[in-house]
Amino acid sequence: MALAVCLLLDPPADAVVRRLWARLEEAGVPSLASHTHGRHVPHLTYASLRTWDLAAVTAALSALPAGPPMRLHLDGLGVFRRSRCWLAPALTPDLEPRQRAVAEAAVATGADLHKHYRPGEWTPHVTLAPRLHLDQLPVVAHLVNDVLPLVTTASRAALIDTSTGDRHGLPHLV
Questions:
Q1: Which pLDDT tens digit goes with each residue over 71-97?
Q2: Which of 5, 6, 43, 155 lies 20 to 30 Å from 49, alpha-carbon distance?
Q3: Superfamily of domain 3-169
């Protein structure tokens, strides 16, 4: 699978997204809560690495300057071509530069960065449903509109192995 470099949502927003995942499941829409290993956490992914050396990536990201907490204003719904449905954050002046720094640091270790996470090609998102059928979109839109806008402050970052859900905290926010 992949190693994801993630911003973790604050506890109140984490709880809102988890409740939204549960409501999607109740409506018959498989959410990230039940996807693969079932250990997913609400997050925004800076980078997705297809091959990596965990120690090297951890060291490279730990060497980046610590950033202040990141305020995210989620107020939209998006769908990627391959049917992944997500919450869209507003683009803030520091979001893209931080993602670029993370992606470049990871690639410098020899990691293989997924093409959708290359700087300039990345679309920030918080995944809701990884395998949405388009006929389910009205249900998702209705449920999402019940929780938007959602404002969160991300103050923690982690490396998450998407095949197992194993989480490795980073020493500071990147």
A1: 999 999 999 987 889 999 999 999 999
A2: 155
A3: Cyclic phosphodiesterase (3.90.1140.10)
